[in-house]
Design a protein that fits this description.
Layout: E1 4-7, H1 13-18, E2 25-32, H2 44-57, E3 60-68, E4 71-78, E5 82-88, H3 91-98, E6 101-102
Antiparallel strand pairs: 1-3, 1-6, 2-5, 3-4, 4-5
Length: about 100
């Protein structure tokens, strides 16, 4: 199955992450090239808390939802140094509620 990619308006990313658990969150990963703190985060709750702090502090460059193999992965790029990936099971609801359009 070919992946489908949906544009996520950057102004809606904080709102999505404020409710991300509602979409059956499977995992959260964050890479911050300017920090080693993200490598020390062990729990999903800790990672999500860290992601929300970073979203509040920084500028979001781009965001897409990649749908493949029964899951959706929200990929957010911030300030060319932070990459956030959140994988959800209920991606159809996320697409519907936020009116996402396929690329």
């Amino acid at each position: 199955m070919e992946p489908r990619v949906y544009e996520v308006p950057v102004e809606r990313v904080r709102e999505v992450f404020g409710r991300i658990e509602e979409y059956d969150l499977l995992s959260v990963d964050v890479e911050n090239e300017a920090s080693v703190i993200d490598d020390m985060l062990g729990s999903e709750e800790g990672k999500l808390r860290y992601v929300r702090e970073k979203l509040d502090d920084g500028n979001i460059d781009s965001a897409v939802l990649v749908v493949r193999d029964g899951t959706g992965t929200l990929v957010v790029k911030m300030e060319n140094v932070i990459t956030i990936r959140a994988t959800v099971r209920n991606y159809e609801r996320l697409i519907e509620e936020f009116g996402l359009k396929e690329r």
